[in-house]
Design brief:
Elements: E1 2-6, E2 9-13, H1 15-24, H2 28-36, E3 40-43, E4 48-53, E5 62-71, E6 74-84
Parallel strand pairs: 2-6
Antiparallel strand pairs: 1-2, 3-4, 4-5, 5-6
Length: 88
């Protein structure tokens, strides 16, 4: 599944990410919000980035979207997590 959320960026979802979104009741709109206006992000490798944010309407800690940058304006969400904790 690929969703365009603005003129310059697309988000693609892996099958695993879609399964986790359904399981954890995380909508594509929430994922888009996390990626477009995150509280923070953690670069794991040259192409893998974790975006995270606290969603006010949820009781989880942070919700995180793990992405792989496929092209300049294309991110593939490979999984989503709830109760994500930032390690310092």
């Amino acid at each position: 599944m690929t969703m365009q959320y603005n003129a310059t960026m697309d988000i693609k979802y892996s099958a695993h990410a879609v399964e986790r979104m359904i399981q954890r009741k995380i909508t594509p709109k929430i994922v888009e919000d996390i990626i477009t206006s995150p509280l923070g992000k953690i670069k794991q490798s040259s192409d893998k980035i974790i975006f995270y944010k606290k969603i006010k309407s949820r009781k989880d800690n942070f919700i995180a979207a793990v992405t792989v940058k496929r092209k300049i304006n294309l991110y593939e969400v490979i999984t989503v997590m709830t109760n994500f904790e930032v390690k310092k």
